[in-house]
């Protein structure tokens, strides 16, 4: 393990790179002691101990009684299911937080540090100005319907984009491919709770229906930034399409939707095909990835940067 670092596949579930490396080490040596893990990883004892505590908290490992203490890895499929359930609970909590923030905006917009912008032309101009003035970072929560066209990333040196797309915003393979190739850091969420653009963490544009509320530095903007970061941790990464991968763009879209928890019937409605077509394509995906289950296919696609 000293030189080999396998692709991280649990990042979307909130597991950091080093936690996952240690979990893999435990899978390779069940019931290992701290000393054995130090030898396997080449890490200092304090570092191994710190990440063991993290694995215990995440439910990815358990400690056996007796001396010396030994650590057993959780069965991967059960552990991932538990992490996914926690992720879903966090998303529900984030949506509740978004509802509270929206009510605060509506209650205080006449008295607070807000400017209300109406009209498609004025809204489009303000979105354009906000991204043109950005010096370091633009954060976007993107969901339909659109009062104006979605923001196109500005190719400016030093300006980074992080975008969380609602799955409804990626309704066809072309949109999914465009999101992946836009040069931005993109993630996907089953339901994005609101539409938001924040430039340099100082200017926020919150779209509510046919109006946009602009706000400067304030406690409400701070709360929206915290909401964005929470959603970012829960969202599924959209990585660039691998040119030499075994899956087509359409196959990757199907597997991404399945990984987000949609049933075959829901996927069929989303992409506009028959359910039987989805089932056939899923079988082809399993063969292409040499997988026997969808869970295994998801892991292998993640390892290859295809999901």
In short:
This protein has eleven helices and eleven strands. The protein has 307 residues and is α+β, with helices and mostly antiparallel strands.
Keywords:
Endonuclease, Chain A, alpha+beta, Arc Repressor Mutant, subunit A, 307 residues, globular, three-stranded antiparallel sheet, 3 domains, 11 helices, eight-stranded mixed sheet
Total of DSSP H or I helical runs spanning 4+ residues: 11
Gross morphology: globular
CATH C-level category of the largest domain? Alpha Beta
Largest sheet: 8 strands, mixed
Beta-strand content bin: 15-25%
Looking across the biggest beta sheet, what order are the strands in? Answer: 4-10-9-8-5-6-7-11
State the helicity in percent bands.
40-55%
What ranges have pLDDT less than 50 throughout 5 or more consecutive residues?
240-244
Structural class: alpha+beta
> How large, in whole angstroms, is the Cα Rg?
22 Å
CATH architecture of the largest domain: 2-Layer Sandwich
Series of secondary-structure elements, N-terminal to C-terminal: HEHHEEHEHEEHEEEEHEHHHH
Average pLDDT for all residues: 77
């Amino acid at each position: 393990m000293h030189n080999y670092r396998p692709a991280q596949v649990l990042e979307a579930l909130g597991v950091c790179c080093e936690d996952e490396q240690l979990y893999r080490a435990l899978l390779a040596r069940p019931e290992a002691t701290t000393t054995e893990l130090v030898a396997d990883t080449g890490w200092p004892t304090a570092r191994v101990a710190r990440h063991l505590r993290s694995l215990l908290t995440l439910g990815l490992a358990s400690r056996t009684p007796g001396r010396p203490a030994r650590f057993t890895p959780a069965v991967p499929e059960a552990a991932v299911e538990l992490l996914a359930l926690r992720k879903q609970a966090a998303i529900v909590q984030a949506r509740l937080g978004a509802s509270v923030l929206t009510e605060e905006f509506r209650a205080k917009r006449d008295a607070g540090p807000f400017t209300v912008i109406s009209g498609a032309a004025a809204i489009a101009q303000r979105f354009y100005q906000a991204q043109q003035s950005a010096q370091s970072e633009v954060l976007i929560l993107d969901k339909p319907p659109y009062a104006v066209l979605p923001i196109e990333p500005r190719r400016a040196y030093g300006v980074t984009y992080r975008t969380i797309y609602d799955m409804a915003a990626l309704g066809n393979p072309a949109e999914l491919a465009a999101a992946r190739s836009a040069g931005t850091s993109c993630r996907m969420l089953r339901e994005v709770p609101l539409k938001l653009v924040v430039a340099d963490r100082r200017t926020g544009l919150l779209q509510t229906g046919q109006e946009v509320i602009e706000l400067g530095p304030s406690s409400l903007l701070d709360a929206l930034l915290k909401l964005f970061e929470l959603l970012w941790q829960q969202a599924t990464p959209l990585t660039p399409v691998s040119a030499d991968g075994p899956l087509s763009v359409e196959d990757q879209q199907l597997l991404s939707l399945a990984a987000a928890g949609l049933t075959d019937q829901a996927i069929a409605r989303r992409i506009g095909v028959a359910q039987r077509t989805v089932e056939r394509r899923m079988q082809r995906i399993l063969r292409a990835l040499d997988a026997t289950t969808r869970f295994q296919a998801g892991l292998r696609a993640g390892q290859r940067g295809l999901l």
